[in-house]
């Protein structure tokens, strides 16, 4: 059984967290290694000194080109904008005349007032009005750390992706296997079983596909049996029609000759003709129902009308007929003004079919219930017929053609038939789509 611990979501979450932790540890180790390599390089080379000397030369060139004096020393801001990550202090006659942090100086600082400004840290530049001491500091190796950080991000991301891909490889292989097995089913081989592996959502999907395969196979086998039963029914009905038709023709020929003088014998022949005609009607009804089940022709629906007006007379006649046959009928009809569209011929055939089934299978000691029902969203309305089934009743309609005829006719009218059977209880509901007022 699938649970939260075995779901794809939880497994993927755990995989991502594990990959993130491993990538973070790899990033930290790589940062230490690269930091050590950069520090070792800087200690063993004069890179910083060379860069500082290049900046001092650039500063002197800027002062010379722009003819800077102590009075206009603040024009150095133009040079500082071209020099990222640089701090500059300029002293003249022992007083601070320029500080890049504050862009102005009040002369309160003097050379040697701070241990950072020792003479070995100072350089000199030539201003227009004399020589000045320069304290220049720059972060010359920032690009090393920037490039190192980019490399660390790329490699750590690669480690993260590789771990995730390795973790989901099994799932991907299973998905591909399901894909190939589905293609086998699409080819028509319904005997091929879908592989169910694991207890996650994919396993549930595979189990559902396999159940659908089994259901589809059973349905196709059932359809094949049903088709064979329909063909057998038509064959038998066509064959059985010959016997009553032959008898009917004999009796009518006798009546045509008019040789009978006995009135009782005449009535006997008329009664026989009536029974044979009724038998032919029943057989023809079966043929008609079969044509409805297998046919695909479209039908025309009548204009939308109130459901009560459509069914009131028909259901009243049906209830009265059942009561004449010894059945109790309970009516629970509330029409609520719902409007539907129907085909009157189909409705008559459906009600006749339901009545016939009630007479065949319903118990007379339990009332037959006829009522209305409405969908919660008020987009459909229905009529239900409920009765108790006789125990040990013969299956006189083994092909179930009657119910299937009702289902087919309801589908053609845009509705559907809902059949419920629980032990001795049988209930059939006819659902019609409601027509909204314009």
Automatic annotation (TrEMBL):
Location in the cell: Cell membrane
Name the record gives this protein: histidine kinase
Catalytic activity: ATP + protein L-histidine = ADP + protein N-phospho-L-histidine
GO cellular component: plasma membrane
GO MF annotation terms: ATP binding; phosphorelay sensor kinase activity
Leader sequence segment: none
Keyword Coiled coil: no
Main location: membrane
Domain Histidine kinase span(s) in chain numbering: 236-436
Residues passing through the membrane, by range: 144-168
Domain HAMP: 169-221
CDD domains for the chain: HAMP, HisKA
Keywords for the protein's UniProt record, in alphabetical order: ATP-binding, Cell membrane, Kinase, Membrane, Nucleotide-binding, Phosphoprotein, Transferase, Transmembrane, Transmembrane helix, Two-component regulatory system
InterPro entries: HAMP_dom (IPR003660), HATPase_C_sf (IPR036890), His_kinase_dom (IPR005467), HisK_dim/P_dom (IPR003661), HisK_dim/P_sf (IPR036097), HssS/ArlS-like (IPR050398)
Keyword flag Amino-acid biosynthesis: no
Organism: Merdimonas faecis
EC nos: 2.7.13.3
Enzyme superclass (EC): transferase
Annotated membrane topology: Multi-pass membrane protein
